[in-house]
UniProtKB/TrEMBL annotation:
The lineage of its organism: Bacteria, Pseudomonadati, Bacteroidota, Sphingobacteriia, Sphingobacteriales. It comes from Pedobacter riviphilus. PANTHER family: BCDNA.GH03377 (PTHR43818), OXIDOREDUCTASE FAMILY PROTEIN (PTHR43818:SF5). Residues 41-168 form the Gfo/Idh/MocA-like oxidoreductase N-terminal domain. Transmembrane segments: none annotated. Pfam families: GFO_IDH_MocA (PF01408). This is Gfo/Idh/MocA family oxidoreductase. Gene3D superfamilies: Dihydrodipicolinate Reductase, domain 2, NAD(P)-binding Rossmann-like Domain.
Length: 451
């Protein structure tokens, strides 16, 4: 029933006792609240982005009526997009939506339970801290963080809270990826020998917003609030709207694309980060003033620390030819696990003739279809968005109610952030980047990497 609001449990004092609550000023609703089965979950939107409008919202709408979720407010720094977002949400939900100029106004909303965060890449970690400080659960887009300072602060804040945080690594809610993880973790694939991550497009307009850039005036936004903890720069509408092209507001390819794919490596292997990363690339085609590369290759060494065992991962991405498509291919001595075709096959495996030459036996994997097993993801009625994100959004919504750990918890975001930041360090220094486990810092040329 909608009038049945919050339910506080007896253990509230235990949750409230954490030092974090005192230092971050957490409100009473963080004290162990459990949302009842009939309570409507009230959600706020942090950033009326294209990603939210075109994918996250349709996926939310696939499940919100069944799970009794509602959107009640929207925060966006730009009045133009804020007005567009309010009108769009009013049409979808049939009721008024609170318009907020910033997140302070959003979190002042009475009885706000959760937020969906899809702001600029560099803002995700800091906006997650704001959310859990306000005792809100959060669905936060990737990359989780692009500096270790932000990653560590956000990880600490989430772990000190009792909030449900789902990182937008939607492969973790995909049937084919769940089956791939099980196939590898059950030992059926054999030791991984290599992984190819590929993300190729041919889209001159990718991440560009020329029509919107022409509309944006400095007086229409809070530029200082947008920058958060990044170095002060003069107002630039391109950096606000086309941030994916401009370091340090985004790393571009690593943060936007690689973070999805490298997360599968961590998930499938239970390894937390690479041992080292090198990278090369450049701006070869789209010379439009961008700072981030339009073509790159990063090479990762993975394995247990202080051992020679392991495997190599390559991430290849280009923006001027789409041959190779988008996907992940895992290799073992017995064949390949291909998440573009969703097939396990003996392709490339050790054949009888070659094995016999060294007194070995053939090693060829059986054929296996990763998309056709008994594991089924609940997706509900599909009204829009993609199947992976729809399943991922539903998983978060269900976990908001059950308080169970979601498919992509903050640990997943922290791990992909380390790999992402190591890649950024290799890109911007030209050196081999490594990770100092004790300091939890990315190192390049013997120095801690910041920007």
């Amino acid at each position: 029933m909608e009038n049945s609001r919050r339910k506080f449990i007896k253990q509230s004092a235990i949750f409230a006792a954490a030092t974090y609550a005192g230092t971050m000023g957490m409100s009473a609703k963080s004290y162990g609240r459990i949302i009842g089965a009939n309570d409507r979950v009230r959600v706020g939107v942090v950033g009326f982005s294209d990603r939210f409008k075109d994918t996250l919202l349709p996926c939310f709408l696939n499940h919100n009526k069944e799970l009794n979720f509602d959107i009640v407010g929207l925060s966006d720094l730009w009045n133009y997009r804020r007005d567009l977002g309010i009108a769009h949400l009013k049409e979808k939900f049939g009721h008024d939506i609170k318009a907020c100029r910033n997140n302070d106004e959003l979190y002042a909303t009475k009885d706000l339970d959760a937020v969906i965060i899809s702001t600029a890449d560099f803002q995700h970690a800091l906006h997650t801290i704001e959310a859990v400080k306000a005792s809100c659960d959060a669905y936060v887009e990737k990359p989780f963080a692009e500096t270790m300072d932000d990653a560590k602060a956000a990880f600490k804040a989430v772990k000190a809270s009792k909030q449900i945080v789902q990182i937008g690594s939607q492969r973790r809610s995909g049937e084919n990826y769940i089956n791939a993880a099980k196939f590898i973790q059950d030992g059926k694939f054999g030791p991984i020998t290599a992984v190819d991550l590929v993300w190729n497009v041919n889209q001159p307009g990718r991440w560009r917003r020329p029509d919107l850039v022409a509309k944006l005036k400095e007086e229409d936004i809070d530029w200082k609030r947008f920058l958060l903890n990044r170095p002060v720069e003069a107002f630039d509408p391109r950096k606000y709207l086309e941030y994916r092209l401009f370091w340090p507001y985004s790393s571009g390819m690593p943060g936007q694309w690689m973070s999805h794919q490298i997360d599968t490596v961590h998930w499938f292997t239970n390894l937390k980060h690479p041992r080292s990363v090198v990278a090369n690339g450049g701006i070869y085609t789209w010379k439009d003033g961008r700072r981030n590369w339009d073509s790159m290759v990063a090479v990762f060494d993975y394995g247990q620390p202080d051992t020679t065992d392991g495997f190599q991962v390559t991430f290849t991405s280009r923006m001027q030819n789409s041959v190779g498509d988008v996907g992940e291919v895992y290799y073992s001595n017995g064949g390949e696990l291909n998440l573009i075709t969703n097939k396990v096959s003996p392709k490339g495996g050790l054949k009888e003739k070659e094995a016999a030459a060294m007194g070995l036996k053939a090693n060829l994997l059986p054929e296996f279809d990763l998309s056709k097993t008994e594991i089924k993801a609940a997706t509900g009625a599909n009204m829009g968005g993609d199947a992976l994100t729809s399943g991922h959004m539903r998983n978060w919504m269900e976990c908001v109610r059950s308080r169970k750990t979601p498919n992509a918890p903050v640990e997943a975001g922290y791990s992909h952030s380390i790999a992402n930041i190591m890649t950024n360090a290799a890109v911007h220094t030209g050196a081999k980047a490594v990770f100092d486990e004790g300091k939890q810092e990315v190192m390049a040329n013997g120095k801690v990497f910041k920007y």
